[in-house]
Amino acid sequence: MKPNPIAENVLGTMGTICWTGQIIPQIWKTYKDKKSDGLSPWLMLIWGISSAFLGVYAILRHLNLPLQLQPQLFGFFGLINWGQCLYYDPHRQNKGYMSFLLVAGTMISVGGFEVFLVFISRPAYERGVTAPVELYGVLSAVLIAAGLLPQYWEIYKRKEVIGISYLFIFVDVLGGLLNDLSLLFAKEFDGLAAASYTIVIVMDSAILIAALILNPRARRRR
């Protein structure tokens, strides 16, 4: 497809808006319900960690600015929601204090790790050594996919989809689609970045399909 910087940035910006705010409905649902039953905390923690690798990859590959910003916000909101899962866990002691410390410490660690990777990888990348950066792209895709596996386990255990905001899933899918489309208009199509976005589209869609199949069955059982 012919490169189109305007289309690339418009679609990338729209995708970033979706992937900036896609976890906000989940944060709101968890806050409103005052519980996180059915939502795997591992999903949000692993996604938060994956943002470091995706962020380094986007920065060093000089993806459009919205796609460089997206991993930072994706990781931030993911870790906020992880903190909610910790806070609303009825089995934890000193939930507020410990949840804050864990989330703040993890955010600082993930952010510092990303800056460190950018710092040590940039000189080699500018000399044409691209293998480390490609590895970061692969790791981000693997972690994004792996993060959804604990959520699948939650669904399997409960035989229904609960605790998850469907708006979160829908916006997540839409953001992945828009980000994929933005890459089609780039001067050079980035397959690894596209793989990360496409994995989210496919695996999130599986959750929606599971809800359509399992939730009516669960209601009939009750």
UniProtKB/TrEMBL annotation:
It is found in: Membrane. Keywords: Membrane, Transmembrane, Transmembrane helix. The keyword tRNA-binding does not apply. It comes from the Eukaryota. This is PQ-loop-domain-containing protein. SMART domains: CTNS. It is a multi-pass membrane protein. The lineage of its organism: Eukaryota, Fungi, Dikarya, Basidiomycota, Agaricomycotina. GO terms for cellular component: membrane. The chain crosses the membrane at residues 39-60, 100-121, 133-153, 165-186, 192-214.
